[in-house]
Structures are given as C-alpha cells and as structure tokens.
C-alpha cells in the first residue's frame, strides 16, 4: 500500500512543475524575441537615419541663410514652427499617447492600465518625431525608440496570439531593444527593462529582453559601425584625489534633477490649462524660440548630439557655459511641453555633460590636482543627472559607459550616481517617468483607463499611509479587491481584517469601473514622499 506524498514532496513537485513551465516559456519566447529584436533594430535604425537627414537639412538651411542675414534669420524660424506645429497636430489627431517621451505610456501598458494601439503609435511616433526633432525642438530620439520598440513587441504578440503575460514580456523586450538600437547600448537596454520598465527579474523576462537587445544592437552595428555613439577619447582612470569633486558633482546633479522634474511637470500643467488655440500659439512661439537659437548656435537645438560631443571633448568656453546651460534647459522645457513626440534622455544628457564639465573645469582652474582632466566630469555628469531625474542609477552608469566607451570611470560613476540618487530621495522628489505616468492617469477619466479586469502586485513601503490599517479601513471602491498577501515566505488569502504591514506584497484584482481604486492603493502603499504631489 503506497503512502500519500508528504507536504515537502508536494511543494517540491509544484516547484518542479513551475520550473519546467518556466523553461518551456523561455524556449517559446526566445525565437519571438529574436524577431522583435530584428524589427526594433531595423525600424529604430530607419528612425535614426531620418533624424540624421532632418538634422542635416536643418543645418544646411541655417548655413545657407547666413548668406542673407537681413532676412535669412526667418528661415530657421519658419522651419522650426512648421515642424513643431505639424508634429503636434499629427500626434493629437491620430495618437495622443505618442506625445512626449512615450516611456510612461509603455509603463502604463505594462501595468495593464493602457491599451497599446501599435498600428497608430509606430507611424505617428516616427513621422512626428522626425518633424519635431528635425525641426529643431530640443528633444531626443531614445523615448520614441523605446515606445516604437514596445509597440513592435506588442504588435508581434498580437499577430502570434500570445498570452497576456507573454505579450507584456515582448512589449518590455521590444522597448529595451529600441533603447539598445537608439544608443548602440545593448546592456543598457536590458538593464533599463529590468530596473525601470518591467522591474521583474524572472528568467523569461530577462531572456527575452537580453536576446531582443542584442539582436537589435547587431542590426544597428551592421549599418552604423562598432564605435560608441559619442566619438570622444577613452579617458584614463582618475586619481583617488578627484573623488571628493565627483561627490560634489553628484550632489549638484541630484539637486538639478529635482529642479528639472519640478519645472517640467509645472510646464506640462501650465500648458494643459490652455485652450486649443492658445496651445497652437504656444507651439508656434516655441518654434520661434528654437529658430532664433538655431540661427545663433545651430548645434544647440535638435537632439544635440554634436553639441554633446563638443562638451565631452572640452571644446566649450567656460565663460559661455552658464548661458548655454540656461538656454538648453529652457528649450527642453518649452519643447517637451508642446506634446510633440520626443524624449528627455538626450536633453538631460546634454545638461549633465554641461554641468559636469563646468564643475570639472572650474575645479581644474582652482586646484588642478583635484580635477586633472575636466572632460571626464562631463562624462560622469551625464550619468549623475540621469540618476537624479530618472532614479535608475544602474541604467545610467551602464548607458554612459557604453555610449562613451569610457569603462575606466566606473568608480567615479558609481560615487556620483549614489549621491545624486541620495539627494533626490532626501528631497522627496518622485522619479520623472513615475511622475509623468501618475499625471497621465490623473488627467484621464477612469472609464478609459482599464478595458478589462487586471491583476496588479504592489509592495507596501515602510511608513506608507496604509501601514497599520485593516483592509476594511482603506475605503477601496467595489471592484478593487486585495485577494492575496505575502510576507517573506508566508502567503495567505486576504480578509477584511487583514492588517497592512511594511514590506507586505499585495495582489489586487481591479475591475474597469474601480480603476480609481488602483490609484488609491498606489498612493497608500507608497512612501510618504511619493504619495503626495
């Protein structure tokens, strides 16, 4: 007579089944991820080529207009106004979710709070991005590339009729592939998926994102070459005596990151209050400003790639640096608030390079032994400001190392990014993509947020508003149900009398009519500095 399996044997069998299912899922996903990588790499490469063509046309127009200075200054203004206006009109008319960076929209899709209309997003993002950035708006190609890659992943999942979880994995993988192709940085694309987008280290997610990013990068390198995006020297390892200056740089970038986020959100709120005609006037005035700056300093507008290289090579006059920093900061705020397709990765990297080089060059003139090579501080400044704004330090470090080829600066990068992160957290500032996502959800009625019931997992932060309260005391609307709780190795079914504790993981079922309850839970489970606006 056989004995029944013990609890330990049952658990082991369940774990084995889960392991085998995970392996099968990986095997099924990897060939699809290769296809997503090929598509994302190819389309992003086309997007990069179109943007390069737009930059060349704009620069050639400005140089030609210098021959007739009395009226020539009007040409870059007309060019910028036309590009910005058409880009904004196209986006608002056909795919409003394609406005701006697009990364918050992809995050909303991954959280199952938004639909992914990939057939509209891809052409609108490409055409609108080329019109806006090619017209001179101070925006970057990375956000559009991430959204385009995610849309391609979602489109392939739909065509292959993949399940909901596989679809989300392919969307995330496509997004990472888009970033990898945009910046020639495959590892950064993978890390961005794991650290910022999906925040999921399951083998299937890791494998799909890894394969898609590598394949997309191979496609890119076949046509653009193997060199890093920024053609700058490989600076040597800096002496330990420079570390205090890198700490100062991190603190400065942390503070600047908080200012950047607050000003950007304030600009978006201000423009949102305008009437349609007033928004059109605002877009045209932004084009006017961009055109005037382009007439004076052509490389300061648009994506700013060549300008960033000049900074990282130390070819910017220190006395002119504060003016250039202020102008580029203002142009970034004005451009993003128009709602035209374009990201903030490249603009914030330019600002970080300017801040870093300014700190390094100033220190070098005062005490040369503390900053023997000021250009290195520009490289580190990009990662530090990225960390202060996005709050994804690992992505920032890997991204800048791959974009510049300066792997010798890992210690300064780690140090500066740590202090930038710490300062931004101490100042209780919300990461920019999280803030943009919450703003988008707040400005959208609940009826359009969820199309079907979704399952969401939340982790309760220490000192969160809901800590110490029972589920019945939370005031959640009908249709927003906490169904499961986890705490360490324990897992149980939630009841009305379950008390919320720090670090507890909650599984929530949300119906479309109760979408606003999800926002309540996100705010109540977040740390105090992220629960308030």
From TrEMBL:
It is a multi-pass membrane protein. It comes from Chloroflexus aggregans (strain MD-66 / DSM 9485). The keyword Nucleotide-binding does not apply. Residues 442-524 form the RCK C-terminal domain. GO terms for cellular component: chloride channel complex. InterPro entries: Cl-channel_core, ClC, ClC-type_chloride_channel, RCK_C, RCK_C_sf. GO terms for biological process: potassium ion transport. The keyword Coiled coil does not apply. GO terms for molecular function: chloride channel activity; monoatomic cation transmembrane transporter activity. Pfam families: TrkA_C, Voltage_CLC. It is found in: Membrane. It comes from the Bacteria. Gene3D superfamilies: Clc chloride channel, Regulator of K+ conductance, C-terminal domain. The chain crosses the membrane at residues 29-51, 71-90, 122-140, 168-193, 205-223, 243-268, 280-298, 344-360, 380-400, 407-424. Keywords: Chloride, Chloride channel, Ion channel, Ion transport, Membrane, Transmembrane, Transmembrane helix, Transport. This is Chloride channel core.
